[in-house]
Amino acid sequence: MTSPSSGGPTGALILSLGTVLGLAACAPGTPGSAPTRSDLAVEPAAAEAAAATITAEDLYGRIGLIAADSMRGRDTPSPELEQVARWIAGEFADMGLRPTAGLEDGFIQRYALRRYAVAETSSVVFSSGAALRWGFDIVTSEGVPFEGEVDGPVVVVSGSGGWEQAFEGVPAGAHVFVFPGGMMEATRRTDWAGRTEALFEAGAATVSLVTGLDAPRWQRIVSRARAGTRVVGELDPDRTVVYAVRADAVASALGPAGVDVAGLQARHGEEVAVDLVAGLTLSTRLAVDLLEDASAPNVVGVLEGSDPELRDEYVVYSAHMDHVGVRPSMADDSIFNGADDDASGTATVIEVAEAMASLDPGPRRSVVFLLVSGEEKGLLGSAHYADNPTVPVEDMVANINADMVGRNWPDTIVAIGKEHSDLGETLNRVNAAHPDIGMTAIDDIWPDERFYFRSDHYNFARRGVPVLFFFNGTHEDYHGPDDEVEKIDTEKTARIGRLLFYLGLEVADADARPQWNPESHDEIVTPPPS
Description:
By secondary structure, the chain is α/β, with parallel strands linked by helices. It folds into two domains: 23-112 and 296-524, Zn peptidases (Aminopeptidase, 3-Layer(aba) Sandwich), CATH 3.40.630; 120-286, Glucose Oxidase, domain 1 (3-Layer(bba) Sandwich), CATH 3.50.30.
């Protein structure tokens, strides 16, 4: 699970079974009668036997391997992540899953992962004769800047209220300086990104966040900027960039033109104001260094469908096999093993793949089993796969994503996204049909955390694929060195795996593909890249 940039983990809510059942009973889309079965659908007895192969013992072994200290937290990119990818590819081959022509070893999709940073000695930003020095006064906060020269007018934004209508006066090509206020108060990454995006859509060439951080905290920002920004594939010529700049440096550069930095800082709490600095032009002379030219793996296996009419449609299971690597910590342990996040989801998808591959005949639709990397770096691997799929994205009927399914309450799993398509009703029906599993899937109980946008399923949703995201919530070991296999409740994880197996089988065998809620479709689905 990728974390928001502005805060730590949210404590998971522990629910009693009685509370869970009450929530489930109140959830929209109550279980209904199952649709008429096709003669090609998997027989219930065969499905039950296959589901029984998803066991706590197998999960413990697989999670233990993926989250072992020797895997050093599976950073993206890293040799250890490559080892995990090759092992998964071997598992898929042993199961008899179909490889894809053109992929490495038939199962490994690679994507370029390069790291860039501003070349400090040959880059400068100046105005009215005063320069902002790269690595001292101004650094990149997000994105990779353009190389070359960019000249434009200067706009200052201050205050904290009324952001929705604030940017109509931003001229095209402007360099916008945002003073502490509403932008800084946007604690959720999605809100903060929305406000910067609105500035760029209004015409801004660059956005600079003005900060009065003390020297130690500013130096941490500088260090991160010098470490560079990772980019999948080639640099986008239409990319945007956000800078961080010290307030006293802004005062030196813009003060001669009459910009009152102290006064703008004091407007915190007032309505947002957007002001063009008359007669002032900001000039940038930027160069970019390529610090690292690497690649990262996704692993893709396909189970061919049994129905000649439906086998060209696909149910997609996904989880992310990466974590955050090795980091200094307050304890002796510096390896962030990521057993729950997300070795638990990865092992569950592998177990479901093995169970489905054992069916003869198999499900009517084909099934894609996808383990991605780069989730912790910003959903990179799933974004690449969604934009460069091995099967047509328009033929993907559903995505079932598992991210953190091994901890917290023993009889409950949160299914995020139930309200956005009739997959929610299908899940309710499947859940009601298998009370023996002892696992209740409930609606999102943390809507304010916006988890829907923070794991790999989102990259399928934005491309128009209905999704469900299975997630047990965060905990005290989230993104910490103590997320170890010994703390995983593998018996619970096995039951979640069986629920996901039955859900995917229901979708794969149904006559009709899942349908979006029209309002959700309009809100979530975005046009494909050009």
